[in-house]
Write a structure and sequence with these properties.
154 residues; mainly alpha; 7 helices; 6% strand
Length: 154
């Protein structure tokens, strides 16, 4: 934009969540360097990061996972293990996995908001409530330790 004399970018929007972190390599650093806000969408990996999909339980009828290979691609043993650990970690703090997924995103550099879809009114309420949990630096470090090696779906 600057090269062409246009107004500078103020936000960038892309897929970003605990299991899909490719933007951390170049996009997030660019946003930090140029004071550009980053707005992730698909923060719950089509529901996978809510804990809705259980290992060996099959995909729930009518779910996004039933209709989308993209979501089913997250259904690996490694990713189930990560979600199980993160769910337990969140529950120890009286939060849900979905709240943790949102809170973790909001704790990332340059993230100024999160675009989260929903299929039920209760999802809207849960998404709004997730914004109340502000992770501490130590909590982000603990979550990142669980996530290390988890960037599958590549």
């Amino acid at each position: 934009a600057e090269f062409r004399g246009w107004s500078p970018f103020v936000t960038v929007q892309s897929h970003y969540h605990m299991l899909e972190r490719e933007v951390e390599k170049e996009v997030i650093p660019y946003c930090q360097e140029h004071n550009v806000g980053f707005i992730p969408y698909f923060p719950l990996a089509g529901g996978f990061l809510t804990g809705k999909y259980q290992r060996d339980a099959g995909v729930p009828a009518g779910s996004r996972g039933e209709r989308s290979q993209y979501v089913r691609d997250y259904m690996t043993d490694a990713n189930y293990a990560i979600v199980e650990k993160l769910t337990a970690w969140a529950e120890e703090r009286e939060h849900t996995m979905a709240e943790l997924a949102h809170a973790w995103l909001l704790a990332q550099p340059s993230v100024c908001s999160v675009i989260s879809g929903l299929t039920k009114l209760s999802h809207l309420q849960a998404n709004a409530q997730a914004g109340d949990w502000q992770l501490t630096t130590d909590e982000v470090t603990a979550v990142n330790a669980i996530l290390s090696g988890s960037t599958s779906n590549e």
